Amino acid sequence: MKDSLFGKTLPELTALAIDNGLPKFAGKQMAEWLYQKDITSIEEMTNLSKKAREQLSSKYEFGLIQSTKVQESVDGTKKYLFPTAKGKFIETAMIPDEDRKTVCVSSQVGCKMGCLFCMTGKQGFQGQLTAGEIVNQIRNIPEWHEVTNIVYMGMGEPFDNLEEVLKSLEILTSEWGFAMSPRRITVSTIGIVPGMVTFLNQSEAHLAVSMHTPFDDERQRLMPVQVAYPLSEVIHEIKSWDFGRQRRVSFEYIVFKGLNDTPRHVRELAQILNGIKCRINLIRFHPIPGTPLEGTDENTLQKFKDQLNDKGILTTIRASRGLDIYAACGLLSTKELLG
Amino acid sequence: MHYKEENKPLTFQLIEVTVTGNVEISPDVYLISWKRMHDFQPGQVVKITDNPELTPRIYSICSGNKEDEIRVLFNVKQGGLLTPRLAGMIPGMKIFVSEPYGSFKDAKQPSYWIAGGTGIAPFYSMFRSGYSENKTLIHGVSYLSHFYFEDELEEAMGERYIRCCSREQSCNVFPGRITRYLEEINDLPADINYYLCGKALMVVEVRDLLISKGVPFENILAEIYF
Questions:
Q1: Residue A325 scores a pLDDT above 90
Q2: A69-337: which CATH topology?
Q3: Where exactly does CATH 1.10.150.530 map onto chain A?
Q4: Which of A108, A202, A213, A227 to mutate to test the interface with B (most CBs of B within 10 A)?
Q5: Residues B125, B128, B134, B138: what is their CA dihedral angle, to the nearest 10 degrees?
Q6: Least C-beta-crowded within 10 Å: which of A166, B11, B46, B66?
Q7: What is the pTM of this model?
Q8: pLDDT value at position B4?
Q9: pLDDT at B107
Q10: pLDDT number for residue B226
């Protein structure tokens, strides 16, 4: 099997050019073809000599992966299914909203974290995605020229695949790559602290943390990662960083009926987030098969939001999108996996 | 962006300790030990590295809380960053560990302990700490040689120690995975706690099965090795 050019960084492409007897600048030329132009084959890299293209084609492939299924919601949201090695699948969502088009990418095949409310976790862990497979989810959808925002909130835990996620961010934000502003990219984590620290040091993209309850004992029942990386450690780490200017930290909070939607939770959230300039995104829970959890009702959700805002925490309710196309992450790929 | 170094929580801080033992108890599975310097509760974890410049990994403690040494069970991950080097450690060498921490803790009440592979570690710690009365331990493995501490557990817990093996058979061992064993039980108590420890898929499948059998999710606590 040939190695893919797509997914390599400029230094890697430059080294590859030199190794193959091409001029050093051929690395930059390849990067521009790979990440900025509408071509799909090495043969179309016409500012490389014919001999160079033949030489590259003998060892490498361009490396784009076509989606095998697309579902479109009545609200315009699209869900793409991409195949990966060993017959597995990942999901990518494209969410249009007025003048924005946000792409939600996966970072792993399946997930190791086993959150009670997550469909992806039911697949277990199937493998890591390469930087190329992550960036392919943006480059290889028809809307790729119109993408305004990217969120790493699809399948998998990004900081459990840190190296490839950081590499994908480099490709997305570099001048030689997609040249996107890191301020248009948000990486969401369950709270893998070492990965989060490396990310904060090496990237300028926004951070989102899946919290879902401020209480340790409740969080442990929803999210087994609480044992290894307690929320208190995550919050402590975040408090040691200066957020608030251009870079944002937000907390994701799925609201479950009777579980995490009470005034007690509002008070605790206000206490533990004191001193962090942040936002809470409240998310409606859309049940997955076999779940014992229920989403909270609209009145309680609104009240919960108002109470948090009254406490001085900027809180919004995320619009639910694509409900008619298995929009909850993991549903479509699990269905496909099971045939 | 400025990073402030002060007031790091205890779990961030690493202490240098001397390895006192490192035994291969099964092919590629080791029990490494060092002198206990802190109190801990069985079920808790420690961070370990052989180089403080590298990200430590997290392991469950696998020894009793009154013992002089702390022990950790690990299997060697081929190509892994830490475990191949950890396997080469001999007494006298230095490693760096955190204070014990974590909330995967049982009490004296009846409960089920359900482990996959090296996920036996926190339960063995609970057992060695005197918490095994009223407990039922179910250990699922692929091969018979992975029933770590089998003799000791069998002698002490008798019929409350249930072994499930998916790829080999032996007398007194259920032939199949933990989920198949649990599927055949019709009277799982719903009012006690279930502690699960192991890899993600095992934990998720067992948790789903318990919930489908009427166990409230609030009574299920899980630790996943990742």
A1: no
A2: TIM Barrel (3.20.20)
A3: 3-61
A4: A227
A5: 50
A6: B66
A7: 0.94
A8: 41
A9: 85
A10: 84
Residues of A designated catalytic: 91, 329
The domain A3-61 having CATH identifier 1.10.150.530: the answer here is: yes
All structural domains of chain B, each given as residue ranges with its CATH number in brackets, are: 10-97 (2.40.30.10), 111-224 (3.40.50.80)
Question: Within chain B, which residues score under 70 in pLDDT?
Answer: 1-11
Could you give the CA distance from residue B104 to residue B137 in angstroms, rounded to a whole number?
16
pLDDT in tens, A264-291: 999 999 999 999 999 999 999 988 888 9
Range 175-214 of A in CB contact (< 8 A) with B: 194, 198, 200-201, 204
Burial of residue A62, with CB atoms counted within 10 A of its CB: 0-12 exposed, 13-18 middle, 19 or more buried? buried
CA–CA min distance A77, chain B (Å)? 29
Nearest CA among A119, A115, A117 for reference residue A160: A115
Residues of chain A with CATH 3.20.20.70: 69-337
Do residue A224 and residue B223 have CB atoms under 8 angstroms apart? Answer: yes
Q: Do A296 and A320 contact (CB within 8 A), yes or no? A: no
What's the pLDDT score for residue B1? 39
Tell me the shortest Cα–Cα distance from B216 to chain A, in angstroms.
8
